[in-house]
Amino acid sequence: MLKIAWSEIFAHSLPEGHRFPMAKYDLLPEQLLYEGTITSANLFEPQPLAEQFILDTHDADYWHRLKHLQLTPSEIRKTGFPLSEELVNREVVIMNGTLQAALFALQYGVGMNITGGTHHAFTNRGEGFCLLNDIAIAANYLLKYENINRILVVDLDVHQGNGTAQIFEHEPRVFTFSMHGGHNYPFHKEKSDLDVPLAEGTDDKTYLSLLQHHLPRLLDKHEPEFVFFQSGVDVLATDKLGKLGMSIAGCKERDRIVLELCHRHKLPVAISMGGGYSKQIAHIVEAHANTFRLAQQVYF
Fold first, then answer.
1. pTM of the predicted structure, to 2 decimals
2. Cα radius of gyration rounded to whole Å, the chain
3. Superfamily grouping for domain 3-299
């Protein structure tokens, strides 16, 4: 059964000025339930993640200052959010959503988090709307507690997964692969194990050709036991922040390539939704909904 992390806290604990694009966290399950792609049995509500699992990834000093709202004004500004207790609580729930999705993936083949993909969070700081790194926390949990020894992170958000790259820079058991806008945020890139920078305006054909070239080779060469997929839809031509030229159909084909390859290799995959900032919320919801539809089709 496809299991999907969802909580009202995902959309309703955000500052007023950030709620428009985040409305997708309510609209997505409504759309998927309405069309029959999922039922309420597919949804689970994660609880806040225990502190010990946060500290397996993030520096104790940073976590202490974050949870006690003691970040400096400069640190807060870099996150893009006004810091609040509600925001930190939201982030801690998101972390457990992805961790639980990973555990469901071990059981069912795939697990999903309607939010997550907070790949700009480093061990000791937050950036770009990310306070803690859900993929890194879940990956470290699998390494430490679930006897998983080879993990592949497939980050296809339009922005480089700089925080994830930094966290696993010296961890050979985790291979980080990021395809992203070469001239987009973050303007100082970290070094992933494989970075594929894309030119502005990159279209479906070029993008999909590059993905089909790199991903099968990575699976064959590194033989991962588990995959984390960051499936941001800010690759769309309609995205306000993306600067690429992909269509909704092209974005869907991207997800199909990833999921069919993982399924063919019998690889469990945990999916975090990542970014999406198109002016029309319908474009965001449709592109994200395709990921859930494909997960049902491919795995079940």
1. 0.96
2. 17
3. Histone deacetylase domain (3.40.800.20)
Report the candidate in 7, 283, 275, 61 with the shortest Cα–Cα distance to residue 156: 275
In this structure, what token pair is assigned to residue 286? Answer: 């449709």
Residue 186: asked if its preceding bond is cis (omega within 30°), the reply is: yes
Residue 17 in this model has a pLDDT that exceeds 60: no
- Supply the pLDDT for residue 12: 77
Residue 4 backbone class (left: φ over 0; alpha: ψ -120 to 50; beta: rest): beta
Tell me, rounded to whole angstroms, the distance of Cα 156 from its chain centroid: 9
Catalytic residue set:
120
Q: Which long-range contacts (CB under 8 A, 24 or more apart) does 27-30 make?
A: 27/281, 27/285, 28/114, 28/273, 28/285, 28/288, 28/289, 28/292, 29/4, 29/114
Q: Flag whether pLDDT at 192 surpasses 80.
A: yes
Looking at residue 15, its pLDDT comes to 65
SS3 letters across 8-34: CHHHHCCCHHHHHHHCHHHHHHHHHHH
Question: Cα dihedral sign for 220, 226, 231, 235?
Answer: negative
State yes or no: pLDDT of 59 exceeds 70: yes
Query: What would the two tokens of residue 273 be?
Result: 């939704």
